[in-house]
Amino acid sequence: MTAPQATTPASAGTLCIAGLGPGDAQLVTPEVTSAIAAATDIVGYIPYVARIAPRPGLTLHASDNRVEMDRARAALQMAAEGKQVVIVSSGDPGVFAMAAAVFEALEGRPDWQALDIRVLPGITAMLAAAAKAGAPLGHDFCAINLSDNLKPAELIEARVRAAAGADFAMAFYNPRSASRPHTFGRVLQVLLEACGPDRLITFARAVSTPEEKLLTVSLGDATPEMADMRTVVLVGNSATRHVGRFVYTPRSAL
Ligand code: SAH
After folding, report:
1. Ligand 1 within 6 A of 174 CB?
2. Is residue 87 a contact partner of residue 72, using CB atoms and an 8 Å limit?
3. Which of 27, 98, 179, 236 could form a disulfide bond with 21, CB atoms 3.0-4.6 angstroms apart?
């Protein structure tokens, strides 16, 4: 008989990078719920880990924002040691969240590349917000992260201009924070120049939580204070309009 190995084989560990949706428990997919139920370790940003119910046998590893690469490496290391690890993101893990950070951490680590790694999708903020408003993203649209943590402000402005110039509807994540209170005002100014004052803009805050608030105004009436870090901002294309209490963008641009 061979002696038992001192360490668990690497193949026993798993890493799921899961999206918890916008807030409401009903918007968490059954696949994500199953992964969390099978987890030994949950890793993520403090407010997201706070959404996971503690239970015996489950270790919660909550970390601060802006440490995504450390968090990704720590999660991969635990999976390599044989643990059932779930990294939690809000919304979808591939939208301005942890999935890309994990793959970046995998670069240059062939020993981790054979691990059982799965990305479990979630309902991203712009889709939850659009559903509440009606169908403002009913034609071609794009999503832009307005945070300048990972890219220069000039690139953000260039992308907003290009998207507006191509008549995309737009979804803006991370529109405004205490550390950069003025950049969103600049984005509104660019949009006003490119789209005119009548374009519809929806501020969707804390969608699917008890604090949810939706406000649709014309660009000419929009102010930076209408957004904060819990808001996703949707800007329609040139055909976006009201119908009853809803906002929608026609499917056709013919
Ligand atoms: N991965 C997340 C996005 C993370 S970036 C997703 O797919 O939704 C964080 C930004 O997402 C916030 O600044 C805000 O713009 C948006 N956001 C996340 N949850 C939200 C919610 N419930 N309501 C409105 N916006 C939300």
Report:
1. yes
2. yes
3. 27
Q: How far apart are alpha carbons 205 and 24 in whole angstroms?
A: 13
Whether residue 204 has its Cβ less than 6 Å from ligand 1: yes
User: Ligand 1 mean position to 73 CA, how many Å?
Assistant: 23
Q: Which atom of ligand 1 is nearest to the CA of 147?
A: 13
Instruction: State residue 8's pLDDT score.
Output: 46
- Determine the average pLDDT of the residues in 71-77: 97
Q: What is the DSSP letter of 177?
A: B
**Residue length of the chain:** 254
232 pocket-lining for ligand 1 (C-beta < 6 Å): yes
SS (H, E, C) 85-115: EEEEECECCCCCCHHHHHHHHHCCCHHHHCC
The DSSP symbol for 204 reads E
User: CA-to-CA distance for 101 and 152, rounded, in angstroms?
Assistant: 19
In tens, the pLDDT along 200-231 reads 999 999 999 999 999 999 999 999 999 999 99
For 151, 152, 164, 173, 201, the CA distances from 159, given in Å and listed in that order, are 11, 11, 8, 13, 18
CA distance 161 to 147: 16
